[in-house]
Design brief:
lipid biosynthesis; ACP phosphodiesterase; 0% strand; lipid metabolism
Length: 203
């Protein structure tokens, strides 16, 4: 899953949201000295981020989506599916949230702007871009998905071709939507169970 899904699946706890956003930027054991700057509440968000990734990677529905793209995008097929699924979440956001995508996005951008000091400095450029160009609303458009894929492609050290994957989404849109609609409710329940266990551990 990509940034929108990760943050949405964090529930209402701001620290969990921050940690979930940080997930891809924090490496190694969370008890290592290099991660000592992270408070325990934010660590729970990183733990959730890693659990989401593991659940997603192992899910047969997601693997079905990935297999459709593997002949063309090989090891990058999973990256493409992550972006596709964020697009599908953005397009169907009203089915999962009482807030509109715009309302949710504005609240989240306000949070990460206010809490920037809690995140690694290497995230500053990404956060500024996310807020100023409204990534989450962009995910709901083909143009936004293409922009996101182009950005990922530029960071890779090899030619992947994923910048052109929007055409694959358009061609098989109904298939990806059907798969997402089966998978995502299962992921929501999975995350709710983790969040409940984390909350109970605080009591």
């Amino acid at each position: 899953m990509n940034f929108l899904a990760h943050t949405f699946l964090s529930g209402d706890d701001d620290d969990i949201k921050i940690g979930n956003l940080m997930g891809d930027f924090i490496k190694g054991n969370l008890d290592n000295e290099q991660n000592s700057f992270i408070n325990e509440a934010i660590k729970n968000g990183i733990i959730l981020h890693r659990a989401i990734d593991s659940f997603t990677d192992a899910h047969p529905i997601v693997r079905k989506s990935i297999q459709r793209l593997q002949p063309k995008y090989h090891k990058c097929a999973g990256i493409v599916v992550d972006v596709f699924y964020d697009h599908l979440l953005a397009k169907t956001f009203q089915h999962y949230s009482p807030l509109s995508l715009l309302e949710y996005s504005k609240a989240f951008y306000a949070l990460i702007t206010a809490r920037k000091r809690d995140m690694p400095a290497k995230m500053d450029r990404m956060i500024n871009s996310m807020v100023t160009t409204d990534w989450f609303s962009g995910y709901a458009t083909y143009q936004g998905i293409e922009w996101s894929l182009k950005g990922i492609s530029k960071r890779l050290h090899f030619e992947s071709g994923i910048e052109n994957a929007t055409e694959d989404l358009k061609r098989d849109y109904d298939l990806y939507l059907e798969e997402f609609q089966v998978f995502f409710p299962e992921l929501i329940v999975y995350c709710q169970n983790i969040l409940a266990k984390q909350q109970n551990a605080k009591i």
